[in-house]
Design a protein that fits this description.
With about 775 residues, the chain is an alpha/beta fold. It contains 31 helices and 24 strands. It folds into three domains: about 35 residues, no CATH class; about 350 residues, Rossmann fold, CATH 3.40.50.2000; about 270 residues, Glycogen Phosphorylase B (Rossmann fold). Helices cover about 45% and strands about 15% of the residues. The protein has a six-stranded parallel β-sheet, sandwiched between helices.
Length: about 775
């Protein structure tokens, strides 16, 4: 979520008043804003997307709730020591959190372990361990519409009789100390992005958020006029018409068997009725096609932790496979491929398959990704129910990612096309009229230059390096992962360095290359990549032959509040994943909206950015998805590229020989070995096209006016990538609710009693 203060002032229309009031007190608002900690309660793009969605849902007046876990420790703080990443705990609640309100009156029990007892009256889950879920509510204000939604985060609490009730052997002190075991559930965020780690505590976290949330949703449904009670029993027929639940990846997949458990075991609905309601309630968003990221939980772990849920999953699977067998008799391989249970070695539950079978809609997050989901990853399921599969291209909130972080540009745009674009970003197309307006071109360039100077001062203060603000700011910020190919950027840096040294007199367009991002603590290769970037920076930044022509900076502890500083100052945005691996990306959209040009592959939302702006207004290079498949078919041989490309050979040899690590010449052996023998992401195959494309970038940068005109064309084409547009599509195509552009009256105005200002419909 990042910081909340400035976002709240902007959405409430109070920023200028607050700035003034604080100034009158002899204080500086910006200084005050810098004191607030980031709420870093998620990993990479998945968590940030949810935050943008919350802002858009409130701005569109949807009755929507965001549910999650109130981690005591969020994503780790990254320190760079001697070029290596070192993790520190993110004690973000140390000084309290003024934005949250604990709601002990809504505390709910969550059960673990135990056993299942079957009787005539049905199944009973008994002898369980109970953990309490305490909700904390954070307000989510819409933009200038007097709507405030809620983000409800659950914290784990041990019940007061924990370890004292049943098997108490008199060790009262130990029993109280053991309360930590229960409360550890919400202690810390698992820091993996695009990687599955099958740990018991992680499964506990996933079930914890799901069980608490579903109880909360059902309580709210029963309290509403829709949960009409026949004598005692609630009628749930209208449930899917009043409730929509969107599963953000497979992490909350246990919600499907949990809702079935509630309906069948507790509410005593017949299975078929319960299953129909469940499927019509859930929809699933897939966020990655990397096989190592797909959640596959061991059956024995689920059996121990959630025995009733395993039985329900088996029953869902049996009925699912019976249905497929009736449509495709004797096709045992299809049954194996489509089963929720993967046999062979340790039996595992494929959570993506559970989500597809248990949902009425499945979507990818960019056109190309949704296509891959439909035709490759889940092709068997798409053949069965083609109408279930959709695309919903991701977006970003223009409130945080333009108004908040780039007020200079936001104001400049408002002067030309009015202020309405903030709520309807498609209006940015009106900027096309000003592409040839010399004054506007100069003003856009001036805003960018001011942002660069401000960021350069920040870098000098934080990193003690002198930055040339007229150099091209070439920025690559995102989680560190092999598929995102920070290594390819690194090879380009080395190539530029070698070119400067080979011919120091030759004209060279000065660059400041900024790379930033966190590596998962257990991801060895990603940590080596960070070390390599820092080792290269050490050499480049201290070579007198290079001077101010080339500087390399590794941005420490990349997070939302740092993104808000670096993105507005960026000239060139690096979006260089291997085609077919980045589901969408959202950083790409933030850079586009803030006046950077993109160098990128035809991957994720880059494809649609090129479609909107015209491919000639992005620097597109490298293999397309088809080329990658073809290369896989032929077999990728890295050695061929190394032998054929002298500059690539030189760069790789320098890494290999210890040119960048003279004290330990073998330091980067693992990296070099990977590049030659098991590089799934084919860095060498795109190297030549990348370097040539970078030459075109430098050439255009020399022509400031042509560069800025291309920037304006990009900003004018960025309207599609508002999360408001994304959420409108979810609302209409999946949740079946109408967004309301109604500004509800402020609390100080009496409401018209005759009018119901709350549009009826689903709560998402």
């Amino acid at each position: 979520m990042g910081r909340t203060l400035q976002n709240t002032m902007i959405n409430l229309g109070l920023q200028n008043a607050c700035d003034e009031a604080v100034y009158q007190l002899g204080l500086d608002m910006e200084e005050l804003e810098e004191i607030e900690e980031d709420a870093g309660l998620g990993n990479g793009g998945l968590g940030r997307l949810a935050a943008c969605f919350l802002d858009s849902m409130a701005t569109l007046g949807l009755a929507a709730y965001g549910y999650g876990i109130r981690y005591e420790y969020g994503i780790f703080n990254q320190k760079i020591r001697d070029g290596w990443q070192v993790e520190e705990a993110d004690d973000w609640l140390r000084h309290g959190n003024p934005w949250e309100k604990a709601r002990p009156e809504y505390m709910l029990p969550v059960h673990f372990y135990g056993r299942v007892e079957h009787s005539a009256s049905g199944a009973k889950w008994i002898d369980t361990q109970v953990v309490l879920a305490l909700p904390y509510d954070t307000p989510v204000p819409g933009y200038m519409n007097n709507t405030v939604n809620t983000m409800r985060l659950w914290s784990a609490r041990a019940p007061n009789d924990f370890n004292l009730r049943d098997f108490n052997v008199g060790d009262y002190i130990q029993a109280v100390l053991d309360r930590n075991l229960a409360e550890n559930i919400s202690r810390v965020l698992y820091p993996n992005d695009n990687f599955f780690e099958g740990k018991e505590l992680r499964l506990k976290q996933e079930y914890f958020v799901v069980a608490a949330t579903l109880q909360d949703i059902i309580r709210r449904f029963k309290a509403s006029k829709f949960g009409s009670t026949d004598s005692v029993r609630t009628v749930f027929d209208s449930f899917p018409d009043q409730v929509a639940i969107q599963l953000n990846d497979t992490h909350p997949a246990m919600a499907i068997p949990e809702l079935m458990r509630i309906f069948v075991d507790i509410e005593k609905l017949p299975w078929d009725k319960a299953w129909d309601i469940t499927r019509r309630t859930f929809a699933y968003t897939n966020h990655t096609v990397l096989p190592e990221a797909l959640e596959r939980w061991p059956v024995d772990l689920v059996e121990k932790l959630l025995p009733r849920h395993l039985q329900i999953i088996y029953e869902i699977n049996q009925r699912h496979l019976d249905h497929i067998a009736s449509l495709f008799p004797n096709d045992v391989d299809r049954l194996r491929r489509m089963s929720l249970i993967e046999e062979g070695g340790t039996k595992r539950i494929n959570m993506a398959h559970l989500c597809i079978v248990g949902s009425h809609a499945v979507n990818g997050v960019a056109k190309i990704h949704s296509e891959i989901v439909r035709t490759q990853v889940f092709e068997d399921f798409a053949a069965l129910e083609p109408e279930k599969f959709q695309n919903k291209t991701n977006g970003i909130t223009p409130r945080r990612w333009l108004l908040l972080c780039n007020p200079g540009l936001a104001e400049l745009i408002a002067e030309k096309i009015g202020e309405d674009y903030v709520r309807d970003l498609s209006q940015l197309t009106k900027l096309h009229e000003f592409v040839d307006d010399d004054l506007f071109i100069r003003e856009v360039a001036k805003v960018k230059q001011e942002n660069k100077v401000k960021f350069a001062l920040y870098l000098e203060k934080e990193y003690k390096v002198k930055i040339n603000p007229s150099s091209m700011f070439d920025v690559h910020v995102k989680r560190i992962h092999e598929y995102k190919r920070q290594l390819m950027n690194c090879l380009h840096i080395i190539t530029m360095y070698n070119r400067i040294r080979r011919d120091p007199a030759k004209l060279f367009v000065p660059r400041t290359v900024i790379i930033g991002g966190k590596a998962a603590p257990g991801y060895h290769m990603a940590k080596m990549i960070i070390k390599l970037i820092n080792a290269v920076a050490q050499v480049v930044n201290n070579d007198p032959m290079v001077g101010s022509k080339l500087k390399v900076i590794f941005l420490e502890n990349y997070r939302v509040s740092l993104a808000e500083k670096v993105i507005p100052a960026t000239d060139l945005s690096e979006q260089i994943s291997t085609a077919g691996t980045e589901a969408s990306g959202t950083g790409n959209m933030k850079f586009m909206l803030n006046g950077a040009l993109t160098i990128g592959t035809m991957d994720g939302a880059n494809v649609e950015m090129a479609e909107e702006a015209g491919e000639e207004n992005l620097f597109i290079f490298g293999m397309r998805v088809e080329d990658v498949s073809e290369l896989d078919r032929k077999g990728y041989n890295a050695q061929l590229y190394y032998d054929r490309l002298p500059e690539l050979k030189q760069a790789v040899d320098q890494i290999k020989s210890g040119f960048f690590s003279p004290k330990d010449p073998n330091l980067f052996n693992d990296v070099v070995n990977m590049l030659f023998h098991h590089d799934r992401f084919k860095v060498f195959a795109d190297y030549e096209a990348y370097v040539k494309c970078q030459e075109k970038v430098s050439e255009l940068y020399l022509n400031a006016k042509a560069w800025t005109k291309m920037v304006i064309r990009n900003i004018a084409a960025a309207g599609k990538f508002s999360s408001d547009r994304t959420i409108k599509e979810y609302a209409r195509d999946i949740w079946h609710v109408e967004p309301s552009d109604l500004k509800i009256p402020p609390p100080n105005e009496p409401r018209d009693a005759g009018q119901d200002k709350t549009p009826n419909g689903t709560a998402a």
